[in-house]
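Attaching the record inline, Q. Sequence:
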Amino acid sequence: MNLNVTLVAQAVTFFVFIFFCAKFIWPPLTSAIEARQKQIADGLAAAEEGKQSLERSSLKANEEIGKARARAAEIIVQAEKRASQMVEEAKNSAREEGNREKAAATAEISQEISRAREALRMQVAALAVSGAEKILLREVDAKTHAELLRAVQAEL
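Structure, as predicted:
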């Protein structure tokens, strides 16, 4: 009988121990485990959110870089257009200046030709008068024969 009383006493002690553990030890342990699980879940959620935020930021950064590259290419194209436009303007300006100088030179040449012809006419008229003087063996008066000299100049 000794064995039965000991067995019953151990069983009662075991049930008291289980009741004590279930009442006082298990709830704080369970709440600590649940708090730790919640903390880990929050950390994982935050990490996932951070990862998604990083991906969004990376996509946005790539998009901004693409926009910047497109803008840079556009600026380069505009600069090249402006440079070619400036070259064309310079060519046109140089062409116009050359045409003006050519026209001025042509006008100056025309004036020189006219002056040379006029001088040549004077010389030819003087030679003609001198030749006529020698032929006639008398001096021809330029003042009295001015009309005749003008006619000779006009014919030349």
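Residues 34-155 form one domain. The chain is about 95% helix and 0% strand.

More tomorrow.
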